[in-house]
Amino acid sequence: MLASFVLGLVGFIIYLVNSTTGFLAGQPVDALLIALTIVALLLIALEFTLHDKLEMFNGVINDVILIAIGVLFAVSCCLFINDRVSLAADVYFIPVNYPAAEESALNVGIVGVVFYALAMIASAVAAFVPMFYSKKVEA
Prior knowledge:
Blueprint (H helix, E strand, L loop, with lengths): L1 H19 L10 H19 L10 H24 L1 H9 L6 H34 L6
């Protein structure tokens, strides 16, 4: 879970910096993406700090939180991609007379999307880690 938190936080910081500086300065940022990422990071912090207390109900609460974290990162990643589609179209499909700052903004955006995707994958992996460390019951 710690890896998912760090990767998600780095992706979030890249999104904020990429959206508010350089070529994209002055453009509106996606409030839904920001809200979903903050909720995902808060859920990871909750899961990390209160894992043992959330084990009630046979771990159902932990499972729901892990699924929610993965879904929140997936939706955030999709929103990030959606925000950068016009940049990709300008740079890759109309490769004439675009400013270098536009290509730079796109490249940084791609790095941010990769971090969001890695956070999503790390949260999915974290959901299965307890299966490998569970205590074996002897019959």
